């Protein structure tokens, strides 16, 4: 492989990484805002009966959390109708910071990918679409297997990786909000993200094949 081919290959791999990051963030963002997942679990798992809160109370507090962690706006955390501890409040602030950081990563990746296409679009063979497609297919298969085998362990590992404290370990007596967020909901949300990645994998591969006909 000559130096020119190596540079093109390196560029395509870099672009595939950018595209993969973009899709991961967008899939996570979509799942966060796709409330029907939670509304289904609310009914399916009888959360109202299990917790003693009305469906209206549950929805307004859940909707508040989604709005809080998903916005860039500076705002103080205050659940509409549930008690919460300082550590519980801090965890939701940490989740908000995580999503804000993901948004920054999204913007940077979009800018870099766009610049790469503008500057080098005529020199590449768009193999980055194929590379990204393979990554987005393998990732859900691997993570999905771990989730299926032991989601509780996977859930714990996720929090230990992305949060530098143990404030995600809620005490239901202090933070009853955790009672309306069953683990099944987080499992379904994780699967939704992985399905989004798999779908984008197929779309990327389809576009690659159309371009290289």
From TrEMBL:
For this UniProt record, the keywords arranged alphabetically read as follows: Membrane, Transmembrane, Transmembrane helix
In terms of Pfam families, this protein maps to:
Lit
Protein origin, superkingdom: Bacteria
UniProt-listed InterPro entries: Lit (IPR010178)
Q: Where are the transmembrane segments?
A: 12-32, 104-121, 128-149, 185-208
Return the protein name.
Answer: Integral membrane protein TIGR01906
Q: Which organism is it from?
A: Clostridium grantii DSM 8605
* Lineage, highest ranks first: Bacteria, Bacillati, Bacillota, Clostridia, Eubacteriales
